[in-house]
Amino acid sequence: MEEEKIEAVREPLLATKQERPKKNKYALGCGVLASMTTILMGYHVAVMSGAQKYMQEDLGITDTQIEILSGVINVYSLAGSLAAGYTSDWIGRRATIILASIIFFVGAVIMSFATNFAILMTGRFVAGMAMGYALMIAPVYTSEISPASMRGFLSSLPEVFINSGVLLSYVSNLAFSGFPINIGWRLMFGIAAIPPAFFACGVLFMPESPRWLVMKGRLGEARSVLVKTSDSPEEAEARLQDIKEAVGIPLEISGDVVEVPKTEKNEENVWKDMFIRSTPAVKRIVATVLILQFFQQASGIDSVVLYTPRVLEKAGLKTDTQLLGATILIGVAKVGSILVATFTSDRLGRRFLFLVSVGGMIISLIVLGLGIEIIEWTHEEDFSWVGVVCILAAVAFVMSFSIGLGPLAWVYSSEILPLRIRGQGASLGTAMNRIISGVVTMTFISLYQAITVAGSFFLYAGIAAMSWVFIYFCLPETKGRSLEDIEVLFAK
């Protein structure tokens, strides 16, 4: 009976997609505005790659302190991601995005005026809070605003903008590298204070998430938003009925403003719903989110993003212009390849892109490790064909990551979580992601000093291989499914 009900809801949606193949421009605009905040996340994470050398010369910061500053922002983002779950349920998804922009502004200002390690740590804490907010709320909002026909595309946008921020940070590193040492790195951080004001103003023109509106009993507003963000009036009504059922509002109840029944699922018992009294399907969903977010970061992407100049130096590049120029090449490849996932995930499916992506990562990491090992063996000091292979392997690695595991881990995590636990579940997944990212980035220098750079990449390749096995055996396809029927997949 449960599957028959789901098919009854899905049939009009599939028919609608056939009749109206064009993209919903209103939903697209909302998804773009919501996701643009994550540009600042990518920028703040990656700007350290080029700024760290000048910070060390100006303030006398050690390698260990650089490791801490590079990775601790991910640990600090835990506070933001966990708080964002409560904030988004309390004041709404849209207001939470605006709050993230404000915090980003403050963090950039503190970093640009820092005079010692302690102030730098304070600035990284504030920016980390904003990162946690942006990383959690952008995928949740876009998945909740999207029609099923566009959910993969729109939910990939945060990752597109994160990587755009990474690329912009590389450009900033190169642009300001010619300034005096005590000014250049400050400009690299300070310029990030400009975009938040524009982002916050743009978000004011976005509608609130229809799912949050239903949770607050504001059915009239939710219906209005759904009509604008659905492919047809029939789909809008079907989505509204699904959300009402998930929230616990009887389907026969209508009106613009209604009282939401005070059932257990609407009280502050979300954590119990996830871990204590949850169904086997929900337990599998939560475990899947956590494991997928673990593998996304444990495979070493942030080590390549943050320490690219150091890695390329091992490959034979020496001058700042060569190093930063090659870094920009990697950034361009990362942004360009992520568009593959953005435009094909709704057509090719999540599983296919996941498996191709991780397979490419494994091969690239092995080649990169072998190339650096050859350079170490031969003591090659000048740039050679092996250095070219290393650069190509690094480019292939970030491209492979960006066509699947990078963007789709967020898409998949946000769409499989049931509505009643989506806010806190997404926060938990974000927390796992940031913890592992922090561990990876704060240990990379120490790791390669202990087991060599090549050994580090071989280790990451092994972790990536484990993730391929997990994806193959444990991740069902979610392409074309409504958010409310995905739970049935995990019940099986």
TrEMBL record:
Top-rank lineage group of the source organism: Eukaryota
Keyword Acyltransferase on entry: no
Subcellular location: Membrane
GO cellular component: membrane
PROSITE patterns according to UniProt: MFS (PS50850), SUGAR_TRANSPORT_1 (PS00216), SUGAR_TRANSPORT_2 (PS00217)
Domain Major facilitator superfamily (MFS) profile: 30-479
Membrane association type: Multi-pass membrane protein
UniProt KW keywords: Membrane, Sugar transport, Symport, Transmembrane, Transmembrane helix, Transport
A Pfam family the protein falls into: Sugar_tr
Signal peptide: none
A GO molecular-function descriptor: symporter activity
InterPro entries in the record: MFS_dom, MFS_sugar_transport-like, MFS_trans_sf, Myo-inositol_Transporter, Sugar/inositol_transpt, Sugar_transporter_CS
Family statement: Belongs to the major facilitator superfamily. Sugar transporter (TC 2.A.1.1) family.
Name of the protein: Major facilitator superfamily (MFS) profile domain-containing protein
Organism, scientific name: Rhynchospora breviuscula
